Amino acid sequence: MAGRTKYLLDEDDLPTQWYNVVPDLPEPPPPPLHPGTREPVGPDDLAPLFPQALIAQEVTTDRYVDIPGEVLDVYRLWRPSPLYRARRLEKLLDTPARIYYKYEGVSPVGSHKPNTAVPQAFYNAAEGVTRLTTETGAGQWGSALAFACATYGLDCEVWQVRASYDQKPYRKIMMETFGATVHPSPSDLTQAGRKVLADHPDSTGSLGIAISEAVEQAAGDPNARYALGSVLNHVLLHQTVIGEEAIKQFELAEDTPDVIVGCTGGGSNFGGLVFPFLREKLAGRISPEIRAVEPAACPSLTRGRYAYDFGDTAGLTPLLKMHTLGHEFIPDPIHAGGLRYHGMSPLLSHIYELGLLEAIAVPQQECFSAGVRFARTEGIIPAPEPTHALAACVREALRCKETGEEKVILTALCGHAHLDLPAYNAYLTGQMVDNDLAQDTLETSLAGIP
Amino acid sequence: MAGRTKYLLDEDDLPTQWYNVVPDLPEPPPPPLHPGTREPVGPDDLAPLFPQALIAQEVTTDRYVDIPGEVLDVYRLWRPSPLYRARRLEKLLDTPARIYYKYEGVSPVGSHKPNTAVPQAFYNAAEGVTRLTTETGAGQWGSALAFACATYGLDCEVWQVRASYDQKPYRKIMMETFGATVHPSPSDLTQAGRKVLADHPDSTGSLGIAISEAVEQAAGDPNARYALGSVLNHVLLHQTVIGEEAIKQFELAEDTPDVIVGCTGGGSNFGGLVFPFLREKLAGRISPEIRAVEPAACPSLTRGRYAYDFGDTAGLTPLLKMHTLGHEFIPDPIHAGGLRYHGMSPLLSHIYELGLLEAIAVPQQECFSAGVRFARTEGIIPAPEPTHALAACVREALRCKETGEEKVILTALCGHAHLDLPAYNAYLTGQMVDNDLAQDTLETSLAGIP
């Protein structure tokens, strides 16, 4: 199997357990706190928002969690996903590096998001919930939850960040085709939305605001729960099918990654790919560098503060210890809508603090330049989010060209850009700008951390 | 391998030859004629439009044609494509039928079109051509050729049918991302286009007009050639990788199709899937019913005339013996842009006349209804074109439910709808109408056949 263009696994090789990195870490991550008492939150605090099964997964210290058969049956529609060797990109870059990408765009909605949407919908349906609310940035998560809800017969209501709602009308249609209802956020349907609109009638929204709206709606309806597409432990847990498959695929390729790069917004695609490799690294079996790549316009790991902060703008969530730009931070409307989040997964933030991964921030034009090169060689037009990983991958491959090192680079290609093509149009027609975060804007926003 | 959700082949199982059905037919298809002399056209007549290798493939009587290694290397980016068992759709329909679909949406552009775009670009590049011109309806073919030209370093210029150009702006961006130049058709860049615009300034265009424009441009530039995405023998030849793979995959599934349904516009996806199965049927090894499904608004097989007619509107092509609605026919702007062609592949037309396949026409709302059911069970939102095949598949499955027959249905799912989502929006919001072709319109158009 060495020497192939792609490394495929059969349905029998689908992982049957998710991997929980927490028990393998040298110390556990700090717990979420109740904003009033500043005491660790318990299951009862989370019960209005999440079903019991997911609350249990959020705090479990088991190394492995079984994947229900009903979830595996849906995963089988697109999983295992392929691992590619980017031979044509390597040739274009004239690099001695070997570049691999794990491609999640084969899912029904074109990204990694259904990996967690499906089990989240399953566990909610199993506990009698009939309606799920959520936010969506780029629209990938909303589409994924819409598909998952169609699968298990749940109603699905999505607050889509206004910037994406306007830039990406096709995403709304996809969600509606799967049967969901979509609102732009901020909306006048919630107190949180109305408050933002009163202060900023032209608000382009943010994930933080949209989360406030969806949380508020779920908390007010006993038959409804809320679903989050990233950030939380159980979300990253579900995504580890990516990394588990990739490890098997590297065995087929008879190769081992030296550098693993992925984009980070809330951190779920990155964590999903990286955690199984981190397990192997902590056990001393491999020693890859692990590199998170974030947008220069929303650099939570590289320029944020590691502190307890709210996950949403209105302050409805528990306090999470994470790298944050401040919960009131509204990122510029860059095209990578899925990376426009003020915070970072607490678990990834903790791992970063432990020194187990590094992080860089990249401006968006460099990212789209890498995306176009990738499309013209590998055929896949990458979503704006993973162009950040590709930009870092190109940097590394060109470094290898200078030094002659034959490094093995693994890139998380978490989705395609079919519904994000206006972003490429902006890039190709010279209408894209690099929105670096100004220091004074950052300081104002950091001052809002409670 | 029986009992799976999907049947995958490895790169080693990629077909290394295309299959030519012509020598296996009881009689050969009638040749194309020169419009002036009404004599069969020779290679010299076609040389201004196509490279020698493709002209040779157009008339070959060899049963198999080797696929060049350079083409296989690009096919490997997405081929072999998966064969799925639609277990969740079967359950929804409560049918004893077993439904399989061969999914071509895994290609870089989301359809079967790159299967022929890649070899066409390869052979042109090998003979020193530097520029390819073409038309595109739904945009799938233009995207495929844009990708293929990027792969071999050719310039690519696409005339996109105005109705699709306006309905599907994302397609244009995809073509441009791959490096192509895109014009709406009719355009004022060609004599053919200017003539149409003079008579019909608001023309929504047609494949026939767009072909005239692309052919005119290629014929006027010695470094350019023209590429066609369907209809011709060499195009259908290249598409037979679909059927060859499907036959191997049915062996893995330990099953045999009783009914094969596919949509027909120019006929390339249908021929590509069907011809290898037809070989097996003609050899007496299997006996499936083979059913072409066309839109009620553009029913060339079911309501057209079997006659010599032009392939384009302006009358620049050789005369082709085919089922045609008349070369001046302009179909209503239905959403299945890829099926808006006045004629049908001469080879498929001939096979239809031989009684080796049947044909039905289906109105578009029934098609989109099937498409939504499919999306909500199987997760893939089908392109408007293959919703026609799915509508026929649903009809057959529901017939089986009534009769209790456990038929095995194979459907050609030739692409996804990511760039066609406005069509689903029209359907979901009740803005879609069924444009059945009026008899008097048809008779006027048929009168234009030379």
TrEMBL record, chains A, B:
Catalysed reactions, as listed in the record: (1S,2R)-1-C-(indol-3-yl)glycerol 3-phosphate + L-serine = D-glyceraldehyde 3-phosphate + L-tryptophan + H2O
Residues bearing the modification N6-(pyridoxal phosphate)lysine: 113
One Pfam family of this chain: PALP
EC nos: 4.2.1.20
PROSITE patterns reported in the protein's UniProt record: TRP_SYNTHASE_BETA (PS00168)
Keywords recorded for this protein, A-Z: Amino-acid biosynthesis, Aromatic amino acid biosynthesis, Lyase, Pyridoxal phosphate, Tryptophan biosynthesis
Highest taxon in the source lineage: Bacteria
Subunit structure: Tetramer of two alpha and two beta chains.
UniProt record similarity statement: Belongs to the TrpB family.
Function: The beta subunit is responsible for the synthesis of L-tryptophan from indole and L-serine.
Protein's name according to its UniProt entry: Tryptophan synthase beta chain
Organism: Prauserella flavalba
Lineage start: Bacteria, Bacillati, Actinomycetota, Actinomycetes, Pseudonocardiales
